[in-house]
Design goal:
Elements: E1 6-11, H1 17-30, E2 38-40, H2 46-61, E3 66-71, H3 77-90, E4 94-98, H4 118-128, E5 132-137, H5 148-161, E6 165-168, H6 174-186, E7 192-194, E8 196-197, H7 203-213, H8 219-225, H9 232-252, E9 257-261, H10 266-275
Parallel strand pairs: 1-2, 1-9, 2-3, 3-4, 4-5, 5-6, 6-7, 8-9
The structure holds flavin-adenine dinucleotide.
């Protein structure tokens, strides 16, 4: 029998009432797949952070399994710890601990009284509560990394500080994920590495975003989407098959959990999960 992987989904707090409605539809379709958790991203500014807090509260009240993202950019250690205590008191057990980026771009600058980087944040969160902490990992090194080896050392530092899982940035070159996994293991990283999978909802936007976050867009992927601008239906079929193929290869290489970047749109992630054998829970018999 084919092995069915564990899955989780990343969603973000919408900015408009239409976005709220779209997220409700997304959750209606994805929640029955019984993800290990839904992770809620943390905004880069004050209003974005309030939206995260409100969404985490709402979904937590609805009984959904959550992982709340938390960044340390632009905040003091006390402010970050206060929010972690709020999550703790709400019963949130999982946190995705991230450094964040300086709003508007530019080199990383920690707050004068803030956590210096994600590893320090993880250590601080562990002092607040025994959270189950996930951190970010980068199969194609992070743009701030002086060398690929330094990037892996930084990941090991996050593990040493108390992280239990690493979720990767999306990476279309599956071979790069495999090499990264092997280099991380050789450097003593023993925590589970969960590949982040991006089913491509909009290829042009994916290309633009990838430039900013350091993820590569391979030529073979460009060729797959070439000429499909304006053809949403075919693009979606191509995107689903690319993601399914990547997951199948990763399963054959021993990966057992995938984290889907849903972009608050269910259909592609839902279709890919179905192809991996993840089916919705059947309603309980009366
Ligand atoms: C799964 C995932 C979820 C995310 N969710 C969010 C979110 O909700 N909100 C948000 O704003 N952003 C989010 N991000 C983006 C993230 O904040 C950025 O990628 C940020 O630039 C780095 O965050 P980090 O936690 O990886 O930082 P860190 O691990 O602190 O460092 C980032 C990189 O800097 C380099 N570095 C740092 N310190 C050292 C050191 N001492 N020595 C050598 N190299 C060092 C390393 O290359 C390292 O990989 C997410 C990213 C991922 C992959």
């Amino acid at each position: 029998m084919a092995l069915v992987p564990r899955i989780s989904f990343e969603i973000f707090p919408p900015k408009t009432p239409q976005g709220d409605a779209a997220l409700d539809v997304t959750l209606e379709q994805l929640a029955p797949l019984r993800p290990a958790f839904l992770s809620v991203t943390y905004g880069a500014d004050g209003s974005g952070q309030e939206r995260t807090v409100r969404l985490v509260e709402r979904l937590n009240d609805a009984g959904l399994p959550l992982a709340a993202h938390l960044t340390c950019v632009g905040a003091t250690r006390d402010e970050v710890d206060d929010l972690a205590r709020i999550w703790r008191d709400m019963g949130i057990k999982r946190i995705v601990a991230l450094r964040g980026d300086v709003p508007g771009g530019g080199p990383w600058r920690p707050h004068a009284d803030g956590y210096s980087r994600a590893a320090a944040l993880v250590a601080g969160l562990c002092r607040v509560a025994p959270f189950d902490i996930a951190v970010a990992a980068y199969p194609e090194p992070h743009p701030d990394s002086p060398t690929p080896a330094a990037d892996i050392e930084n990941l090991k530092a996050k593990q040493d500080a108390g992280a239990a899982t690493a979720i990767t940035q999306y990476c279309f070159e599956t071979e790069a994920i495999l090499r990264f996994r092997d280099r991380a293991a050789a450097a003593g990283v023993t925590m589970e590495i969960v590949p982040g999978i991006l089913p491509i909802v909009d290829f042009a936007r994916t290309v633009a975003f990838s430039r900013r976050c350091g993820a590569g867009i391979p030529d073979w992927l460009c060729a797959q989407f070439e000429g499909l601008e304006g053809d949403a239906e075919t693009s979606a079929m191509v995107a689903a098959s690319v993601a399914v193929e990547q997951c199948h290869t990763l399963i054959s290489e021993g990966f057992r959990h995938f984290h889907f970047y849903t972009m608050n749109k269910a259909p592609l992630s839902y279709a890919v999960c179905r192809r991996l054998g993840v089916h919705p829970a059947l309603p309980e018999a009366a």
